[in-house]
């Protein structure tokens, strides 16, 4: 049935992965699954591609990190450059769920460098996807990842020639401020919430990143030539403790 001509049939089998695994075993299952997954991942119908993306976290949890890194990682990163926005959006949420499955240390090595590299791509859609991915991943990455990997890329994108990139940078900074205000030195917002810790104060390092690495760039974007960039930068600066944000200048 994994070779059925109808993608819906193959998707149905994959959706029952846990039950199938109990019957035929993980080794045989992985050999049978891979060709079907690849075909579905490259299907010309974008809704089929979207459906297989939604099953990837289940596949990852059943097949393990080694199989994923060797066989599926490339597919997941490829979806970030899909021509359909819904696929790119789903792909960023997929990375978040995979980080929840495999952990932040895995993401720091397997995902974050590739996502950050897209921020230097000549095609602006890839750079835009980097902003979307950072916003989506913010709650599942650590303070160390934000400081060493994410903020350096955003500091480059602040100067991007495309206004849509710059206002998405401002929106991304806004999300990071929200995360950093609750992020301690160790762990992630996801791990804290999973443990029932919802009122943790920000660490001094988090506050330092906001004040020294984020706020100056939001202030720079508040003086941008584009009104939308100024609006989102002002909104973001307003969320910084003690900053308040300058009144927005909407004149050309």
Automatic annotation (TrEMBL):
GO cellular component: cytosol; nucleus; protein phosphatase type 2A complex
The UniProt record lists the keyword Repeat: yes
InterPro entries according to UniProt: 2AA_helical, ARM-like, ARM-type_fold, HEAT_type_2, PP2A_Regulatory_Subunit_A
Pfam family, one: VPS15-like_hel
Ranges of the HEAT repeats in the UniProt entry: 33-71, 150-182
Protein name: Phosphatase 2A Regulatory Subunit A helical domain-containing protein
KW Repeat (keyword) present: yes
Transmembrane intervals: none
Keywords associated with the record: Repeat
Domain Phosphatase 2A Regulatory Subunit A helical: 2-164
GO MF: protein phosphatase regulator activity
């Amino acid at each position: 049935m994994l070779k059925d001509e109808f993608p819906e049939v193959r998707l149905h089998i994959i959706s029952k992965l846990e039950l199938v695994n109990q019957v035929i075993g993980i080794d045989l299952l992985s050999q049978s699954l891979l060709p079907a997954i690849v075909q579905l991942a490259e299907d010309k119908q974008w809704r089929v591609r979207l459906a297989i993306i939604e099953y990837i976290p289940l596949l990852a949890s059943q097949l393990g990190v080694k199989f994923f890194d060797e066989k599926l990682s490339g597919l997941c990163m490829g979806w970030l450059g899909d021509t359909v926005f819904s696929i790119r959006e789903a792909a960023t949420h997929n990375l978040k769920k995979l980080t929840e499955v495999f952990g932040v240390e895995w993401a720091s090595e397997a995902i974050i460098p590739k996502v950050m590299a897209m921020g230097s791509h000549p095609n602006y859609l890839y750079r835009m996807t980097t902003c979307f991915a950072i916003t989506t991943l913010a709650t599942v990455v650590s303070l160390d990842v934000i400081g060493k990997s994410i903020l350096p890329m955003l500091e480059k994108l602040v100067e991007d020639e495309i206004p849509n990139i710059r206002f998405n940078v401002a929106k991304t900074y806004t999300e990071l401020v929200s995360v950093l205000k609750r992020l301690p030195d160790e762990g992630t917002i996801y791990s804290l919430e999973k443990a029932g810790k919802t009122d943790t104060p920000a660490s001094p390092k988090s506050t330092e990143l906001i004040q020294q690495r984020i706020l100056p760039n939001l202030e720079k974007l508040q003086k941008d030539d584009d009104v939308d960039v100024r609006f989102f930068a002002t909104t973001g600066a307003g969320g910084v403790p003690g900053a308040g944000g300058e009144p927005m200048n909407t004149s050309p």
